Input
Amino acid sequence: MRIRTEYAQEAAAIPTYWLTDTEEVYAYLQQKVLKGAVGLLGHSAGRRPIWMVSYGTPREGKGTTTYSGSLGCNDVKAYLGPDYGKRVMLIIGGVHASEFEGIAGIVNLITVLEQGVDLRGKPWPDLVQAAEQLDRILLIPILNVDGRARLPIRMEPYRGSDNLPHQYLTSGAWLDGANIGWPKVKQYIPLDFSQTEFPGTYCNDGGVNLQHDDFFGNPQPETKALFDLLARERPDITLNMHTGAPRNNYYMRMLTPFLENALVPVQQGLYRHVHTALTLAGLQGSHDLALEADPKRQPPQWPFNLDSAINLHCGSLSVTIESPCHAFSGKNRAGAEVRHEPDALIDAQLVAYEAGMTFLLKKGGRCNWAPGYRQTYQL
Ligand SMILES: [Zn+2]
Output
């Protein structure tokens, strides 16, 4: 498969804490994961293994009904099963394979959970403490291993404000060399690789962008494996880590998924909690919490994607969090250029994970987020 040589350039100096290649990540997990367990989630459309790491003890037993049934009978515990009170968190990276920040972030999180410090030697005591109080943590560093295999680099060089090379690596180019671009790329699922110079790395080897799979019809093997995991583990919160922060306010941002109504206020609380943590860590455009963390200022609701499907499949509060990219700059609200160094990008990942965990501890999990149908509507 052709990839334009000038766009497939590797960064001149790659920090040792920046692990994003499937093989190097797996080798690292094999060597360093001692407290957790490395497991096989499943295989991709291209028959590549997808690895995950788990900590803690899973929910035991099963519920007596489907997720939908549990909402219908006004008792989500009937789906969650006898261990409904356990608090379970899932973090997914690399749904889009060129979006390295989440992959590198999850590897650093695993290092924190194993050693108390990240790959830079930076301690995260509050994160460690929060993680220890959760019952179960599931981490998938790279879901789209097919897309990742298509990209022969571990880190892009920084190219100033030019994001076209990154766009090429992400959403590909047609045979005439023109970038397919976003959101045009979503018009073609599955993408016909024969029509492309390079199909990008959004999609798996079946040409399917896993963020927009045919969830209820004929899902891809990656989605099927993920959904089987979700059914087994029934996570309270799922963080779906991407790279795609807004160019005009170029800081980490949670998107607003379409979710069942009961979770809308909970998602708003999570938004406030995560963005408050990012603001206090100096990782937003200002120090003004009213501006940065107010859920009323969230992006418009995203109509339907993987997060919605995860929610409706197993009740998890699933959100996409968009990071800025190491490879190009954006603008702040005042129009000044903003560049994020890899160091700050890893910090933002870890701050977001920690905030997700502390929110879950504070709010008590899915069984507490289910005001019943009959409480609001008398039949
Ligand atoms: Zn993405």
